[in-house]
Amino acid sequence: MGYSSMLLWMFRPILAARKHFKAKDTDIILSTMPKSVTTWLKALTFSIANRSVFPIDQTPLLTSSPHMLVPFLELNVYWGQEIPDLETIPFPNPRIFSTNMHFKLLPDSIRESDCRIIYICRNPLDQFVSHFLFSVENKFGKDADLAAINEAFEMYCQGISSFGPFWDHILGYWNAHLENPGKVLFLKYEDLKEDITFQIKKIAEFMGFPFSLEEEEQGLIDQISGLCSFESLRNLAVNRTGDINGILKNASFYRKGQVGDWTHYLTPAMAECMKKLMDSKFEGSGLMFRT
Ligand code: A3P
């Protein structure tokens, strides 16, 4: 896909979402660059918000993909499909949506209402590799060829990727979080991997669904982290088969689920180049990634 057609591909859905989506004060919006563990965040936030509605062994996550329970604002439109009716979603208390839009491009109602935004990102080296392999697996664009990794990496470092330069995406939400931490929660995959219990508590508090002492003593946080773990979600029949929108294979959302897998795909020179780029782009922001 050329750069201009990529921009067109991105902008139609963004314009559609801006026009059709009206956020409510109670909404939770999950925002990510693709392949930054949106799936995990969807499962966690859905479980946190609905834990008093469904016992863990009857959660809809056992029979529905996290992407069905927490719909994307704009995904259908990327594929030329219909704009979804987002007013009537099956589990509306609260409504949880996800998006890949940059902070500045979000529908005005998201920024202007009291709804809350949870952003998650990951080390760009891992995000690039995950995205590249996802494209190969789902056979779209030039990336369908595994041998094209060098070219794809070069473009990524120039900021040419679907959803634009990774540094703009990440810094947009990082700065919004610094300005208003009650509005934007900023998470990193590596931190969730390191201490999921602490992060689940943090997410629940931010969402306005904090765990009571009694719930903690009942082991509810452990149950949620177990249910939403990579192995647990990946092994569910619903996530092993089928697809989203007839295009993205459900199973392709659960590849390896590890930090640092980039070392198996990128040369030391590529990693060095990326580290320099990250240093220059994130300099002075206070933002750091573990590589
Ligand atoms: P890898 O390709 O590195 O394995 P997204 O959900 O934004 O599409 O991102 C997909 C990435 O998140 C994939 O990374 C996938 O394996 C990982 N992932 C999905 N569910 C996960 C989970 N429950 N825990 C940890 N990682 C998960």
From TrEMBL:
Its EC number is 2.8.2.-. Residues 25-286 form the Sulfotransferase domain. Residues 1-16 form the signal peptide. Coiled coil: none annotated. One of its GO terms (molecular function) is sulfotransferase activity. Keywords: Signal, Transferase. The keyword Transferase applies. Gene3D superfamilies: P-loop containing nucleotide triphosphate hydrolases. It is an enzyme of class 2 (transferase). Belongs to the sulfotransferase 1 family. This is Sulfotransferase.
